[in-house]
Each structure stands twice: as C-alpha cells, then as structure tokens.
C-alpha cells in the first residue's frame, strides 16, 4: 500500500490550495478515505472523510464550508480542495486509508495506512 500526497505549499490568508493523494497497492474504490493534519507538538486533527463511492462526505467543524473532499476512483486519487484558508490551517496534511469495511474515521485504530504528508503553510 502506498499513499502519496502532493499539492501543499504556501498560501495567503483567504487563498486556496488543492491537495491530492494518489493511492496504489489496494482497490482504492472499496475504501473509506480521509484527510487529517498535524501541527508539530500537537495531536492529529481529523479534517474530512469520504465513503467508498463518494456519496457521503464528513467534515470537522473547523473546516466545514471551506474545504471539500472528493475522490476519483478511476485515477485512484483522493482530493482536498481548501478555500478561504486561515493561518490556523497551517499543518502537515496526511491522507489515510481506513480498514476494509470501516467508516469510523475519527478513530486512529481504524486506519490501515497513511501517506507521508504534504505541508500547508498559510501566511501573509
């Protein structure tokens, strides 16, 4: 299993970034996927999740209305469109694969694999 994130970088407050996570080594379409983020010295913060099939999405209150999670199963790719970025969004962003059949995206024990992360910095 491999998850490779990209798309991070520097953005101004109010700006946008689009993160991608390319998956390989498993049948991507059959798995619940999510995004999480971490600031050095702090715990992992759940950001968003999407079910297999992409019919249901879930968001943390801190990003609801600003971020959109989506997936393209033909490309084995997970996305996170981030708009109206705030300095508080600065973090290392990870995509995660849940265990087969699991939908408990807020439980770290339910994860099968994580990517290496992509850094997002929001600053003027």
Short characterization:
This protein is an all-beta fold.
Describe the structure.
With 124 residues, the protein is an all-beta fold. The protein is 0% helix and 49% strand. It has no helices and eleven strands. The protein has strands at 2-6, 9-11, 17-24, 33-38, 44-50, 57-59, 67-72, 77-82, 91-98, 111-114, 118-122. Strands 2, 4, 5, 6, 9, 10 and 11 form a seven-stranded mixed beta sheet that branches. A hairpin with a 6-residue loop joins strand 5 (44-50) and strand 6. The chain is globular. It starts with a strand and ends with a strand. The model has no long low-confidence stretch (mean pLDDT 97).
How many DSSP E strands? Answer: 11
Q: How would you describe the shape?
A: globular
Topology as a string of helices (H) and strands (E): EEEEEEEEEEE
**Which spans have pLDDT < 50 for at least 5 consecutive residues?**
none
Largest sheet: 7 strands, mixed
- Helix residue percentage: under 10%
Mean pLDDT: 97
End-to-end distance, in Å?
Answer: 37 Å
Question: Strand pairing plus helix content: what structural class?
Answer: mainly beta
Characteristics of this structure?
single chain, 124 residues, mainly beta, 7-stranded mixed beta sheet, 4-stranded antiparallel beta sheet, 11 strands
